[in-house]
Design a protein that fits this description.
The complex is a heterodimer of chains A (515) and B (293). In chain A, the strands form five sheets. Chain A has a six-stranded mixed sheet, with helices on both faces. A six-stranded mixed sheet of chain A has the order 16-19-20-13-21-22, sandwiched between helices. The N and C termini of chain A lie far apart (59 Å). Chain A is of the alpha/beta class and 515 residues long. Chain B has one domain: ABC transporter involved in vitamin B12 uptake, BtuC, CATH 1.10.3470. In chain B, 70% of the residues lie in helices and 1% in strands. In chain B, α1 packs parallel to α6 and α3 runs antiparallel to α9. Chain B is globular and about 60 Å long. In chain B, 49% of the residues are buried. The chains are: A alpha/beta (515), B mainly alpha (293). Chains A and B meet through α2 and α3 of A and α7 and α8 of B.
């Protein structure tokens, strides 16, 4: 039987991939009843380090010590046996299986026969302890992101994990779920649990963690007390330079209507309407935000505007031209660009070369093709200019696009979509999962587009992002707008309630939402 | 007339038995995430092994065991290629079919046309087989039939109600997540493919030592491909596989029944083994299919 983890140390851990040092002589320590923050940009090596701790990767050098004793962790199983549990950023759950089956899979003491029946009790008692309230018989795909995360936590805890590694845990949660989640962490800390929290969100690191280890480019930049550091100096440690947190955004007049959405209804994947009669307009020199918990119809609305999904009722116009239910290419040719939600699935063709991805949707234009042949010379020249202009870090344009990091892929997509100077740029979660540096850059680009006279429709779950960028913000709940707020509206403070559907600004209340 | 119907049902169950056995195996393999298009080849290997061993030892049960072992062994080829080497499963499965058919033809050459002195005969179950109408149809069958039905129920039970089953299914659904739970994904897949091979070989053995008690080249006659279609038809559920297997068995029998009436057997012909691409190329994604239910 394993011993309770009191302390865990990683000593001089190094790991390289294809000659790139992902982790270079890293030391860190965490003790009982403590939350250690692991802060760093994307690609700083946080996840690699934790995957070493969880036995997914083997370190090239260095050692791991549990309670001062050196241990070998050569597989996730070994890690679980040492009392380490990990909640991955992308949940490691089997969507088609029930909660019980998911937990039974990794449960060390699950019986061979009828495991579903026999472990139900321990699952229920664990979820009661933390007020999790999850139905063990539901299939995982029926659960919200927050519930799935709770399943992951229970999965780790039933195995007696004394150390819980949380990889970007709040990236998928709503503000309300995040608050609940923080309470759970506080409770675990009181119980003497060790927690390592990986994040690049400075606020939550400051709020929750006792100590912070900052990584940059695979190396430890410093171990600091969270209390003593302010946000700005943490950011400087992480990025290596000063980061601007607020953008200057002067008011611009709203005159010319670019996008006009009138009473649009869209049917979702499950066959019932998920967008219920939404109307709004976006003007030139404006960034229009849509806030809301994911799954409330924003994805379908965006797909309807960009032509990927059929509009069952209502009209969509661009510059007074009706584009309702036109083909995506026709809509694109009418000046609507799209930075899609799942950038790797819908934004690029991962196996194609970078220069091919740089002209997706534009390949048919005269400048890139003659008759049926692609003009590779011009395409490559265009790509070189694009990656220079949009700071895409890549060894060459002749690499498969999937080899780029998330931030660089996003810069490429944004560059491609903006380079055509669209009248309307539809951006869904453009900075989701990106680090501070890339986020800052992308937000600046959106603002630049606004100044140049473009209209931007920004769908995001990140409220800070919406507050910083948007001239107006609409809140969507169950396919309806709960209200549209100006950026100086004091009611923005209640946006969390509106997202949860408890507060609705009626029409005539400064908003044109209808119920 | 009544006798005719009973005889049709009886022969339907016989014809459906190898299909059911093969389908159970393919379901186990596919549920672990490995598509095995080598069923036809493994069936042939099973058939020829069972025949040869039975011919020499005079013990059909020994023949059956040898067939299962042979089927498992030759399936390792596919497991190695698709799990350890991560190669294309379609290609490797088709290669297994060709290998199996070839090996079976070669080994079986001296035995073509030789009759078997002893075979696995029908085994009436005491009391149950005395029930009028149902008795002789359901309970006076070859032991292969009983085994197939019991194995189908057993496979369903293992997949749905045991930890092993959860591991197999999880491996097929999301190998990465399964790996992080400390399950050895490669091992699970090896075992599933090998078990699947055992089932296919059993189906083959049924053909040579119970159904027809002889060996000729090509006696599997495309049943391996039907198995792959049936796996989808059954939506990867061994219980539904019973329905599918006996339905297809019925069509098989009807072909011969309708011939005297002037209806060409081609009308209900089995998919041709010469076009295996059909089976492989049109496999719909499993999740999509299941989601519709």
């Amino acid at each position: 039987m394993m011993h309770k983890i009191e302390t865990l140390e990683m000593v001089n851990v190094s790991k390289s991939f294809h000659g790139v040092r992902a982790n270079d002589n890293i030391n860190l320590k965490v003790s009982s009843g403590e939350i250690l923050g692991l802060l760093g940009e994307n690609g700083a090596g946080k996840t690699t380090l934790m995957n070493i701790l969880y036995g997914i990767y083997q370190p090239d050098a260095g050692e791991i010590r549990v309670n001062g004793q050196r241990v070998t962790i050569d597989s996730p199983r070994a890690s679980i046996e040492h009392g380490i549990g990990m909640v991955h950023q992308h949940f490691m759950l089997i969507q088609n299986h029930t909660v019980i089956e998911n937990i039974a899979l990794g449960y060390a003491r699950a019986p061979g026969l009828f495991p579903q029946k026999k472990i139900r009790k321990s699952i229920v008692s664990f979820s009661e302890k933390f007020n999790f309230n999850i139905d063990p018989d539901k299939k995982v795909w029926q659960l919200s992101a927050g519930e799935q995360q709770r399943v992951e936590i229970v999965k780790a805890l039933v195995n007696g994990a004394g150390l819980l590694i949380l990889d970007e845990p709040t990236s998928v949660l709503t503000p309300q779920e995040t608050r609940d989640f923080f309470q759970v962490l506080e409770k675990m800390r009181k119980d003497g649990q060790l927690i390592i929290l990986i994040s690049h969100k400075l606020d939550e690191i400051k709020k929750l963690c006792d100590r912070v280890t900052v990584l940059r480019k695979g190396q430890v930049v410093g171990h600091v007390d969270a209390e003593q550091m302010d946000k700005r100096s943490l950011a400087r440690m992480m990025v290596g330079r000063d980061v601007i947190f607020s953008f200057s955004r002067e008011k611009m007049p709203r005159k010319e209507k670019v996008l006009d959405v009138a009473d649009v209804t869209v049917v979702g994947d499950k066959g019932y309407p998920v967008v219920n009669g939404i109307s709004f307009a976006v003007y030139r020199n404006e960034i229009f935000g849509i806030a809301g918990v994911s799954g409330n119809g924003q994805r379908e609305l965006v797909e309807a505007i960009t032509g990927l999904r059929t509009v069952t009722h209502g009209r969509i116009r661009i510059n007074d031209k009706d584009i309702t239910n036109q083909s995506p290419r026709k809509i694109y040719n009418n000046g609507v660009s799209h930075v899609p939600e799942e950038r790797i699935r819908f934004g690029i063709a991962p196996n194609l070369f970078l220069y091919e991805n740089a002209i997706l949707k534009q390949h048919h234009q005269k400048k890139f093709s003659r008759l049926t042949f692609l003009a590779y010379g011009r395409i490559k020249a265009h790509t070189r200019q694009l990656i220079k202009e949009f700071q895409v870090a890549t060894p060459s344009i002749n690499v498969q696009t999937k080899n780029l990091s998330g931030g660089n892929i996003q810069k490429l997509i944004l560059g491609r979509e903006i380079s055509d100077k669209p009248d309307l740029l539809v951006a869904s979660h453009p900075t989701y999962g990106l680090d501070v540096g890339a986020t800052e850059y992308l937000r600046n680009q959106l603002l630049k587009r606004r100044t140049e006279g473009g209209a931007v429709l920004l769908v995001s779950e990140d409220l800070d992002e919406l507050f910083e960028l948007c001239d107006r913000t609409a809140v969507i709940f169950k396919g309806r707008f709960m209200g549209i707020l100006e950026s100086d509206d004091p009611r923005l403070a209640d946006i969390g309630l509106m997202m949860a559907g408890t507060k609705n600004l009626r029409p005539g209340d400064g908003a044109d939402a209808s119920l | 007339m009544e006798e005719l119907i009973l005889s049709v049902v009886q022969r339907t169950l016989v014809a459906g038995t190898p299909l059911l056995l093969g389908t159970i195996g393919e379901i186990i393999s596919e549920r672990s995430g490995i598509l095995n298009l080598g069923v036809e080849g493994v069936m042939a290997v099973g058939a020829v092994t069972a025949f040869i061993v039975t011919h020499h030892t005079g013990n059909p049960w020994l023949g059956l065991c040898a067939a299962i072992v042979a089927g498992m062994l030759i399936s390792i080829v596919h497991a190695f290629a698709s799990v350890s080497l991560q190669s294309n499963q379609v290609v490797s499965g088709l290669a297994l079919t060709m290998l199996g058919l070839g090996v079976a033809g070669l080994l079986g050459k001296p035995y073509v046309g030789k009759p078997l002195a002893i075979k696995i005969n029908a085994m009436p179950i005491p009391f149950l087989s005395d029930i009028p109408v149902v008795g002789p149809v359901l309970f006076n069958q070859s032991p292969f039939f009983y085994m197939a039905v019991l194995l189908a129920i057993g496979a369903w039970f293992v997949l749905e109600h045991t930890l092993l089953g959860i591991r197999i299914r999880s491996t097929g659904e999301n190998p990465k997540a399964t790996e992080t739970q400390g399950v050895n994904v490669s091992l699970v897949r090896y075992l599933s493919v090998i078990a699947g091979g055992g089932f296919s070989a059993m189906a083959g053995a049924h053909l040579s030592i119970s159904y027809s008690k002889s060996w000729i080249e090509g006696m599997t006659a495309g049943r391996g491909w039907i198995v792959i279609a049936l796996t989808i038809f059954a939506l990867w559920n061994p219980l539904r596989a019973m329905v599918g297997a006996f339905l297809f068995g019925g069509i098989f029998v009807l072909q011969y029944m309708l011939q005297p009436l002037g209806i060409s057997p081609n009308f209900l012909a089995m998919p041709s083994p010469q076009r295996p691409g059909h089976a492989g190329g049109t496999l719909p994604p499993r999740r999509a299919l299941r989601a519709r239910l």
